Amino acid sequence: MLTVYGFGASGNCWKVAQILRSTDRPFAWIEVDSNAGGTRTDAFLAVNPNGKVPAVVLADGEVLTESNAILAHFAEGTAWLPAPGLARTRVFEWLFFEQYSHEPYIAVARNWIGYLKARTRYADRLPEVMERGYRALAVMERRLAGADWLAGGAPSIADLALFAYTHVAHEGEFELSAYPGIRAWLERVRAIPGIEPLG
In terms of domains, do 52 and 104 share one? Predict the structure, then answer.
């Protein structure tokens, strides 16, 4: 059986659990609280020397890290990931966007404000995080104003990756009322059989 080391409050870890559930792969879950230093212990660093969750240990002992790489690995050969070619490249564009332009702002604001309750501690950094988070939401809105899904005409792991933190963006005080395309897309993703929202 697969073993997932993850933090239940993390959208990055949610992605991994969701693709495993969506592809009917049973797994064991080991909770690791990254905010409490759980990823810096010797035991965890032996699993992932980069000190981050999620990490997946395969049945043969191989370890997979980085949430979007894990998504792609388990989506291979399923409807969640197109065959090699332009359609797959479009999915990967959104995966890289999510990790570089979206998650560092939407997820960070959520962690600081909604989880750590540390708005005052990060008051000097929040304005830039919020500005860049809204910039990422605007990019998504431009796509979703005229398309049902982020990449192509069907749901893919691009949608799972971006849904992870977008559907809880309000916990970081992002207001989505000005983004009707995103709001409609969130409802479409929620309606996919088997989707279990974070929290």
Answer: no
Split into its structural domains, the chain has a count of 2
User: What letter represents residue 25's amino acid?
Assistant: R
Residues 98 and 182 in one domain: yes
Rounded to whole angstroms, the Cα distance separating 132 from 1 reads 40
Q: Checking DSSP bridges between strand 55-57 and strand 63-65, what pairing results, if any?
A: antiparallel
3-state helix, strand, coil in the chain (%, to 5): 55, 10, 40
Q: Do residues 55 and 118 both lie within one domain?
A: no
Q: Which token pair is 67? A: 């949430």
Same domain, 105 and 164: yes
CA 89, chain centre distance (Å)? 18
Give the predicted TM-score (pTM) of the model.
0.96
Q: What CATH number does the domain containing 21 carry?
A: 3.40.30.10
Quick check: 160 pLDDT over 90? yes
Q: Tokens at residue 88, please?
A: 């797959």
Q: 173 by DSSP, 3-state: which?
A: coil
Q: Where are the alpha helices (DSSP H) in 76-125?
A: 86-97, 103-109
Mean pLDDT of the chain: 97
